[in-house]
Structures are given as C-alpha cells and as structure tokens.
Amino acid sequence: MSPLQEAEHLLGSLSRAEKAQLLQWIVQDLGDAFPGIESRPDVCGGEPCVVRTRIPVWTLARARELGLSDAEILTSYPSLRAEDLANAWAFARSHLHELAEQIHEAESA
Question: Is the pTM of this model over 0.85?
Fold first, then answer.
C-alpha cells in the first residue's frame, strides 16, 4: 500500500477535529509559515523558539529524539501547550537539517 493510499485509509478514521488539525499541518508544511514559532535576534541568538517562551524548537526536537512523549515534554515545560508542540513538530518536519545542526552545536559546546 502506498503512503497516499494509507493516508486515504486513515482519513476515514479521523474525527472532524483531527482532520482539521491534519489540514493545518499540511498547509503549514506547504506554505513554510509556522504560527507559534518565531526567530528573533534578541531571543536565544535568533534560534527558532516557541512564542511567549525562550524554548528553542531544537530543544523540543531533541527531547522527542530521546524518547520523551508529548505529555512528558508538556510536564517538563509547564508554559507549553499542546498547540505549541503541534507548531514545533510542523516546523521540525520542514527544518530537519537546521535542527540537527543546532542540536549538534549545543551538544558539542
């Protein structure tokens, strides 16, 4: 079964809210617009961060790589909301190379 056929099959099992979230992710992925993620020179050296926080997206991506679930990440960062993680994961999917470099730099320091 191709990935597109799998997606079509899964689509039927999703609720309206889940379909809306999926659509939002697709639009963000295609448009390279990531609400909830900002890069400002005066915040964390310009690294992409979750708005309202100084939490870099690479930090969240690394936590996920280390096996933390979304629930565990939200517990570790009480200022984050589930929506913030959804925005971070959308950004991460489109910026894998950039985040890998940031993780490498942080772990090499």
Answer: no
- Residue 93: closest CA among 1, 24, 6: 24
Beta-bridge partners for 49:
38, 56
Q: For the stretch 5-22, what's the b/e string if a residue is b when 16 or more beta carbons lie within 10 angstroms of its beta carbon?
A: eeeeeeeeeeeeeeeeee
Read off the DSSP letter of residue 42: T
List pLDDT tens digits, range 21-64: 888 888 766 666 788 999 889 999 999 999 999 999 999 999 99
CA 42 to chain centre: 22
State the CB neighbour count (10 A cutoff) for residue 51: 13
- CATH fit for domain 34-108, picks 3.40.50.1970, 1.10.10.10, 3.30.470.20, 3.90.226.10: 1.10.10.10
